[in-house]
Amino acid sequence: MEPSRDNPLARFAAFWWGIGVVSLFFVVLLITRLAKGGADAPDPLEEAARLKRLEVRAKVDESQKSHLNSWTVSQDGSTVKANPDAVFDLIGKQLVASKPTASTDAAQVVPGSATAEKLAAAPAGDTSAVDDLTAPAGTAPDAAVMEKGKQAFMLCAACHGLNGEGGPVGPPLAGSDWVAGPVSNLIRIQMRGLEGPITVAGKEYNFPAPMAPMGAASSDEDVAAVLTYVRNSFGNTAPPVSAEQVKMLRSEVGKPALKQADLIPVAP
Ligand code: HEC
């Protein structure tokens, strides 16, 4: 048997060594602290920086105070000197009392709002001026415009049929008096949409859903192209529609959907 195993003191030698080393560490720490002249004495560098900060802060406060006290505020035409509290108070009240001005930009009007109702009551753009600009009967459409219009027509075809023959969700465009009639009607339908019963080529239709304002988000050129296309396809022949004509009726965007009665009547 090993003698060290029997001796309890020898068995715990490592423990006593540990205690010793830790105590020594604390003793050394204490001595260095005392040598520095007390644990609470501030670092001289830190102290210098702290004093400098206080000095700068005092300068900033002083300058702000003198500026704020020279503030003036205009009220009812007269300019008065005001302290910052009064200025903030007044500005706050003015902000709370201010109301945003209603937008009259047709594309931004909220449907059903007072502004929308006012716009709806406003007369349409000068439709006769638009129709007067229509090229004389027999004017052939531009081939490039027709090509552009054909592309755009894909959207219309969903409801009006690929050959404008009409279907369960849209009336025919082929042989429609509306399509061959006044250009202003067609442009306004694009800008505002169309709802309610409509008679096309002598037949009355009443679709469950209205036509949406398809042209509101398209350029003047695109609307002119698609209308020129439907006026010169599926057996229809009518003078082309110009981008200028479309532009003249942009103001219609944002107004409620048209009804047949809102359009210039065409032959049944
Ligand atoms: C979501 C289906 C739908 C789409 C897409 C659509 N329309 Fe219509 N369109 C209708 C409906 C429905 C009517 C009839 C509205 C009514 O009830 O008075 C109509 C009516 C018309 C009329 C007048 C009536 C007639 O048959 O001549 C024209 C012109 C017309 N649309 C052109 C177009 C053009 C051009 C496009 C593509 C830019 C287009 N529509 C896209 C559903 C649609």
UniProtKB/TrEMBL annotation:
Signal peptide start and end residues: none
Write out the GO MF terms: electron transfer activity; heme binding; metal ion binding
Keyword annotations for this protein?
A: Heme, Iron, Membrane, Metal-binding, Transmembrane, Transmembrane helix
Q: Which residues form a coiled coil?
A: none
Lineage top rank: taxon = Bacteria
Pfam families attached to this UniProt entry:
Cytochrom_C
Q: Does the keyword Nucleotide-binding apply?
A: no
Spell out where the chain crosses the membrane: 12-31
Does the record carry DNA-binding as a key word? no
Domain Cytochrome c, residue spans: 144-234
What protein name does the entry list? Answer: Mono/diheme cytochrome c family protein
Q: Which organism is it from?
A: Haloferula luteola
